[in-house]
Design goal:
By secondary structure, the protein is of the alpha/beta class. It has five domains: 115 residues, no CATH class; 118 residues, no CATH class; 317 residues, Rossmann fold (3-Layer(aba) Sandwich); 237 residues, Rossmann fold; 138 residues, Rossmann fold, CATH 3.40.50. The protein contains 31 helices and 26 strands. The strands form six sheets. The protein has an eight-stranded mixed sheet, sandwiched between helices. Keywords: Calcium, Glycolysis, Isopeptide bond, Magnesium, Metal-binding, Mitochondrion, Nucleus, Oxidoreductase, Thiamine pyrophosphate, Transit peptide, Ubl conjugation. Its cofactor is thiamine diphosphate; Mg(2+).
């Protein structure tokens, strides 16, 4: 017992009486056999603890002494030595000599009664047995028979632990020999192998340990630093006869293994990423879901790679078989919009009655691309959102299950998502080239999650382990990992030839009986079923599948709506309690400054955001903002969470106290994983259309580590997954001499992925609204706080949902000219896609010689330079606030000066930024009558310089080009 040893080490100087009083109160009950010690005359101070209900304290002192006699006080040492040596009652205890005695002159004999010569041997043997039991608990999984093929070691190590008894020769490791096998030893409270027996012969102890830890289940749990949790796991796996199944349960388990065999026969040459070799995944998932439903869970959200997805859809989610089979018909076309995706990437949502518990349960399998773990944080975010909206603060009603292949376990995202509450299942193939750690699941040790390895060719062991895993989560609300050690019968996919790279393994696989056949033969041998019954069950299931296959030919059934994993049936209401802000919290300087702005009826960027959020909260819109340092803002501009400067950890979120009955506001700093966090927030936004979910990068550049989420889920979301999503990405952007990693949100990447046509000028009256509906996302770069205010509100007030990409400023957060009036935010005002010049150039358009188009922060550089050059009448500046979908009709107003040159100005380099996107669209607005010139930085590989002087030189060159009216004459 690691925890008891730690306590004893700390208490070594204390007396017997003091020791037993200070041992933790959370102790297992003492076995009845220990009562024999109560007949002895113990140390006087300990006598009260040897009577009544306190004997379990003394028992633990006894076992602590067995492990290390020096870990207890000398008075206990003398007592236990003499009692074990057979001293008569009343004579076992001797007081230690007084402290004034000269210890150097006292012999060992003066500390205790002279006992029989075998006293030390007896103690050592008991200690050896305790160590033996502990060795199996710690390292038994290294010896377990986990590989169904019998050719690989699941832990990548062919050597056997020296302290595991695999032969009588190993007894010598513990100082025992074959003659000790029939000796009876008392069992400690840290094992349950005895059942109702408190002592067993050594031979039986070893046999029971082997049955518990060295068969088809390998358990890793002794690294968990909680005694109660370790004892719970020991009881689940050590108790004799605990893994029992009725004949009916076995027949049901057999039936769950049938589906994959039908798919193989029907589409043997079709790429479907079948589950052959791991068919047991289906009863495993069903067991987890059934047990969790029994414990109160009513919503399960799953994420998995493509392998086995069709089987999971059919037999776990219970998707109609004809909807699955029709995906194999190449003649059918989707009856709804969207590009669609391959059948083994798709997900779905289904609510049904759980036949085992007679409770309603909702199951959602999240769609996933070939980036196998990309769905992990999405699942976690969606799970968190569903828990939030139903008030499930402890995760008792909504849970997630993630599945991974063993190689994918090494992917960074698995480690990132392990810190969130989940059940994990991994299934393995050849691991030798996939990792350097013993097991693929080793990363789960970081979060103290128990790991249950199980041979996937033993369906009953798998089902038992999954039952325990579900009970663990329900009991402790903590992560748990089930590692299904299996094989892949058909290589990467059904068209792949694995013999090229794994010839020896696949020779063995070709000989391997499928688990369905092996389990059927076992049940027939046990008399659970007979051969005719088994064949009848197969024929009955085949008939069901064939009838569904016939129905799948009907073109009417194929509709993309059947593959939605996150439908929005109605408004979700958040259940949350709001605490009052401490009255002693003094408003900081930032808030006082905001108060002054309000008096002057002006807003800066942070206040505009605050007002947008506040107005939506009043209207019942839940707002969630996350990212790195978002509570205060990366640039210390936001301060949505106030911290008491005198009381530790006392905080307040004023935005949760603006209005009676308002919606809740959630703001939370995130970890330094853009990949994981953005996926999480995307999943959260999937749960409800009635929430504004925003993710802010610390710097816009950092979104590049989340590119997989952007490319696979956000950009093609509606076309690929038939999923509208209103997530907002706030990406700080601007060239300010801060170097190539703190400057550019890479607007060119987002614009390149926009689906609006640069060559089509609208002729429809409703084109502007239609543009928004048909685009894949909206990209903006606002130059005023008011426009930022409006675009945030528009995002949630639109009758549909599109992702919104906002290139937010850095220096403009406090720029004295980047201010807006309340008048620009009152009822009747709205978001301006284009802001034309409103100065002298607009008053006398005939004098305008050049129209500069720009977006975002560079506008303020241009206006300052124009004023310095006294060219306000000659040069007009038009701001494009919404870049995609490009506001063709609004931008046309800036091109109505016939004699003026058109120039696109940007601070980004020419091969980056907006120019390549904007140029053809501007030309479309003028029917390509004029060229669109460029003023900006030269092409470069890096997004920005980190040298301040170079930055200013580049900026001045940009401005010189923009305002030199002769600059483009030679090029015309």
């Amino acid at each position: 017992m690691l925890k008891l040893r730690t306590c004893a080490a700390k208490l070594r100087p204390l007396t017997a009486s003091q020791t037993v009083k200070t041992i933790s109160q959370h102790r297992p009950a003492a076995p009845r056999t220990f009562q024999q010690l109560r007949c002895y005359s113990a140390p006087v101070a300990a006598e009260p603890f040897l009577s009544g209900t306190s004997s379990n304290y003394v028992e633990e002192m006894y076992y602590a002494w067995l492990e290390n006699p020096k870990s207890v006080h000398k008075s206990w040492d003398i007592f236990f030595r003499n009692a074990n040596a057979g001293a008569a009652p009343g004579t076992a205890y001797q007081s230690p000599p007084p402290l004034t005695s000269s210890l150097s002159t006292l012999s060992q004999a003066q500390f205790m009664v002279q006992a029989q010569p075998n006293v030390d041997k007896l103690v050592e043997d008991h200690l050896a047995v305790q160590s033996l039991i502990r060795a199996y608990q710690i390292r038994g999984h290294h010896v377990a028979q986990l590989d169904p093929l019998g050719i690989l070691d699941a832990d990548l190590d062919s050597s056997l632990p020296a302290d595991i008894i695999t032969s009588t020769d190993k007894l010598g490791f513990y100082g025992l020999d074959e003659s000790d096998l029939d000796r009876v030893f008392h069992l400690p409270t840290t094992t349950f192998i005895g059942g109702n027996e408190s002592a067993l012969p050594l031979r039986e102890i070893i046999r029971r340990l082997e049955m518990a830890y060295c068969q088809h289940i390998g358990v890793e749990f002794m690294f968990i630093n909680d005694l109660e949790q370790c004892q719970w796991i020991r009881q689940k796996f050590e108790t004799p006869g605990i893994m029992q199944f009725t004949n009916e349960e076995k027949r049901t388990l057999l039936a769950l293994l049938l589906f994959e065999e039908f798919l193989h026969r029907k589409w043997s040459s079709e790429k479907r990423f079948g589950l052959e070799g791991c068919e047991v995944l289906i009863p495993a998932l069903k067991t987890i879901i059934d047990k969790s439903s029994e414990k109160g869970v009513d919503y399960v959200i799953m994420g998995m790679p493509h392998r086995g997805r069709l089987n999971v859809l059919a037999n776990v989610i219970r998707k109609e078989l004809e909807q699955i089979f029709c995906q194999f018909d190449s003649k059918l076309e989707a009856a709804d919009e969207g590009s669609g995706d391959v059948k083994y990437h798709l997900g779905m949502y289904h609510r049904r009655i759980n036949r085992v518990t007679d409770r309603n349960i909702t199951l959602s399998l999240v769609a996933n691309p070939s980036h196998l773990e990309a769905a992990d944080p999405v699942v976690q975010g969606k799970t968190k959102a569903e828990q939030f909206y139903c008030g499930d603060t402890e995760g008792k009603k909504v849970m997630s299950i993630l599945l991974h292949g063993d190689a994918a376990w090494q992917e960074q995202l698995v480690t990132l998502t392990l810190s969130l509450s989940l059940a994990q299942i991994g299934f393995t193939t050849d691991p030798r080239m996939a990792r350097s750690s013993p097991y693929p699941t080793d990363v789960a040790r970081v979060v103290n999650a128990p790991i249950f390895h199980v041979n996937a060719d033993d369906p009953e062991a798998v089902v038992y382990v999954c039952n325990v895993a579900a009970e663990w989560r329900s009991t402790f609300h903590k992560d748990v990992v089930v590692d299904l050690v299996c094989y892949r019968r058909n290589g990467h996919n059904e068209m792949d030839e694995p013999m090229f790279t794994q010839p020896l393994m696949y020779k063995q696989i070709r000989k391997q009986k499928p688990v369905l056949q092996k389990y059927a033969e076992l049940l027939i041998s046990q008399g659970v079923v007979n051969q005719p019954e088994y064949e009848e069950e197969i024929a009955k299931y085949d008939k069901i599948c064939e009838e569904a296959h016939a129905r799948s030919k009907d073109e009417k059934i194929l509709h993309i709506k059947h593959w939605l994993d996150s439908p929005w049936p109605g408004e979700a209401q958040a259940v949350i309690s709001i605490a009052k802000c401490p009255a002693s919290l003094e408003p900081c300087r930032i808030l006082k400054t905001r108060g002054e702005m309000v008096k002057n009826r002006t807003v800066d960027w942070a206040l505009a955001e605050y007002m947008a959020f506040g107005s939506l909260l009043k209207e019942g819109i839940h707002i969630r903002l996350s990212g790195q340092d978002v509570e205060r803002g990366t640039f210390s501009h936001r301060h949505h969470v106030l911290h008491d400067q005198n009381v530790d950890k006392r905080t307040c979120i004023p935005m949760n106290h603006l209005w009676p009955n308002q919606a809740p506001y959630t703001v939370c700093n995130s970890s330094l994983s853009e990949y994981g966090v953005l996926g999480f927030e995307l999943g959260f936004a999937m749960a409800s259309p009635n929430a504004l979910v925003l993710w802010e990068a610390q710097f816009g550049d950092f979104h590049n580590t989340a590119q997989c989420i952007i490319d696979q889920f956000i950009c093609p979301g509606q076309a690929k997954w038939v999923r509208q999503n209103g997530i907002v990405l706030l990406l700080p952007h601007g060239m300010e001499g801060m170097g190539p990693e703190h400057s550019s949100a890479r607007p060119e990447r987002f614009l390149q992925m926009c689906n609006d046509d640069p060559d089509v000028f609208p002729k429809l009256d409703d084109f502007d609204v239609r543009q928004l509906y048909e685009c894949n996302w909206i990209v903006v770069n606002c130059s005023t706080p008011a426009n930022f205010f409006h675009v945030l509100r528009r995002q949630i007030l639109l009758p549909f949902r599109k992702p919104l990409i906002i290139f937010t400023p850095k220096s403009l957060l406090r720029h004295p000219e980047a201010r807006s009036s309340f008048d620009d935010m009152l009822p009747g005002t709205h978001f301006l896609r284009v802001i034309p010049d409103s100065g002298p150039a607009a008053q006398s358009p005939e004098q305008v010689k050049r129209v500069l188009f720009c977006t975002g922060k560079v506008y303020y550089d241009l206006t300052r330079e124009r004023k310095a050059r006294n060219m306000e009448a000659e040069v007009a500046i038009t701001r494009v606030e919404q870049l995609s979908p490009f506001p063709l009709t609004a931008a046309a107003g800036g091109t109505e000066v016939p004699a003026a040159e058109l120039v696109w100005c940007q601070e980004e380099h020419k091969d980056q930024g907006y120019y390549d996107y904007v140029k053809p669209r501007l030309r479309t607005t003028i029917n390509r009558a004029k060229p669109v010139w460029y003023a900006g930085r030269e092409p470069a590989a890096a997004p920005a310089t980190g040298n301040k002087k170079t930055h200013l030189t580049e900026l001045q060159r940009l401005l010189d080009t923009a305002f030199n009216l002769d600059a483009f004459k030679d090029l015309a």
